[in-house]
Amino acid sequence: MLPEALVCLLISAIVHAQQLSINAVASLNTQTLPSPPSFSIPSNDNQLTISVALCTNSNTAPRFFLSNASTTKNPGSGGGEGVFEIALQNGHGNWTGLFENGILAVESNGAQVSFEIGVSDSGPIHEVLNELPFFGDTTSNQALLFSPPFATPSIPPPTYPNYTLPTASLAFTETPPSSPPNYTLVLSPTSSSSLASGPQTGCFLSSQNTSGTIANQSLWLRDEEGWRIQWLLEGLSPSTNYTAYAIQNGTKVAGPIYFATKSASFPCPLVASLPFCPGVSHAVPLPAPPTGNTIYDTTNLPTNLTSTLLTYLTNFTVTLTTHACGRDRYSPLVDCGDCQREYRRWLCAVSFSRCGEPSVGSPSAFTGVPATPTQTGISALKSLLPPIPGMGGGPNQNQGQQQVLSALLPQTTQRNPILPQMDYTQLLPCLETCTSVDRACPPFLQFQCPTRKFNAAASYGVGYVDGADGDEGEGLVGGAQDRWGNVWCHLG
Predict the structure, then answer these.
(1) Nearest alpha carbon to residue 189 among 254, 130, 233, 248
(2) Which CATH number fits domain 4-126: 3.40.50.10490, 2.60.120.380, 3.10.330.10, 3.40.50.800?
(3) What is the distance in angstroms between the CA of the first residue and the CA of the last residue of the chain?
(4) Angle (deg, nearest 10), helices 431-440 and 336-351
(5) Each residue of 394-429: pLDDT tens digit?
(6) Exposed, middle or buried, 61 (CB in 10 Å: 0-12/13-18/19+)?
(7) Do the beta carbons of residue 235 and residue 141 sit within 8 Å?
(8) What is the 8-class DSSP label of residue 15?
(9) Which of 38, 136, 145, 446 would you call most buried, defined as having the most Cβ atoms within 10 angstroms of its Cβ?
């Protein structure tokens, strides 16, 4: 029998050889685990988060057990002093605590499964993010998608005596972040996708086949929420539903979101990457881009479109700054910067009309004629039963027998006379794009929006975001679009 001191030395050497590292990821496989299948967790004065992620789709997942007791060298399903199991959900699991003699053990259950273990002193390395990727728009074979926002810009309010606002040609003056997160886009047709059926982990999703080709990837400050990665995808199939994820640094998952490409006959090209209209990332009723280009941006957009818009914005800004812009003189809630930003968003939304078409699954889900003045949207509610007298068009009318339709309206003449004349179906702007300007700007500008009682629904999508009477967030769907690919109106 070996001396007790030598046994302890050998155990110490084995544990040290299998020690995990802080702020690092270990890639492992159940078929090549050490014996015993356990790992030492480094001691640390602060809490550590141990996270695991399955990289293989298997009906028999391994189980992960933790112990911080010096007497428990190989924790497992048999229990023991201070043994905890890391519960898995959709292939992820994590546990946070203080570790002095920490051990992580793996029970493989006989299956061959690849997995990752992460140890971090600043939250879980593996997780599903709360923020979703953002869907811009599609053509028949292209899509504009964005990562979740990061690096929120610093936008100082205008102050006395120089109320400085961004120029008409540049909505933001921020420089791009020097070290943005590393995002990877994963995309697949929804009908044939294995993405949703497997572990919702970065290592599994990144190993699956991706549809389309990323024609361009760039940093873009789309709005005040923060910088994003902007992807232009090409080579997609017409009239096809897609599932998309954005994977941050290979371990954090944003998504899924869903969207559909347009039909093969869809007439409008994409417009994006406009520094004076950073929120424009949609299909616009324009002819095909010049030869050698697949979308419109600042390099090839017709100059009469940009010059007119910049003139409007310049004149508005000059008028706006004749009024005291400081919070102490203007409003305790908003200032001239907010007013200019909302006016820019509205002006860009109405100047660059958004093309749309009914979804493949609901080809009649649009309105062929303008709504009557009392409707809460362009056929926002299509009930299978007659409306209840006195109930208006609110979300509780004929509950369970309603269909919310997007604010689509066929166009034969352009709302913006500078755009070329063509037949297309317009996705009307959300009324909130207009009312946001009214709320943020001083009364002397006399900026006014139509109301539900006076035919607002003929030119705006009404009642989707806010309620028919303006109650914030109390509309039929509460937003301009959702993660399932429904786009109800154009928010700009």
Answers:
(1) 233
(2) 2.60.120.380
(3) 78
(4) 160
(5) 333 334 445 678 888 888 777 778 888 888 999 999
(6) buried
(7) yes
(8) H
(9) 145
Task: Confirm if 294 and 215 have CB atoms less than 8 A apart.
Answer: yes
Confirm if 183 and 154 have CB atoms less than 8 A apart: no
Give the least confident one: 56-70, 335-349, 391-405. Answer: 391-405
Model pLDDT, residue 327: 56
Per domain, the residue ranges of the chain are 4-126, 134-383+400-458
Specify the pLDDT at position 373: 44
Residue 355 pairs with which residues in a beta bridge?
A: 426
DSSP-derived 3-state class of residue 440:
helix
Supply the pTM of this predicted model: 0.88
Q: 244 near 259, Cβ under 8 Å?
A: yes
Task: In whole angstroms, give the CA distance from residue 482 to residue 492.
Answer: 15
Q: Which tens digits make up the pLDDT trace of 204-258?
A: 999 998 999 999 999 999 999 999 999 999 999 999 999 999 999 999 999 999 9
In this structure, the number of other CB atoms found within 10 A of the CB of residue 194 comes to 12
What are the residues whose beta carbons fall under 8 Å from the beta carbon of 383, sequence distance 6 or more?
397, 398, 401, 402, 403
Residues 6+ apart with CB under 8 A from 417: none
Pull the structure tokens for residue 298. 């600042």
Give the relative orientation of helices 303-320 and 336-351 as an angle to the nearest 10 degrees.
160
Q: What are the tokens at 317?
A: 């800004």
In single-letter form, the type of residue at position 244 comes to A
- What's the CA gap between 378 and 59, in Å, rounded? 47
- The torsion angles phi and psi of 467, rounded to 5 degrees, stand at -65, 170
| Tens digit of each residue's pLDDT (9 = 90 or more) over 430-477 | 999 999 999 999 888 999 999 877 778 888 998 889 877 777 878 888
DSSP 8-state secondary structure symbol assigned to residue 405 = -
Q: Helix, strand or coil for residue 349?
A: helix
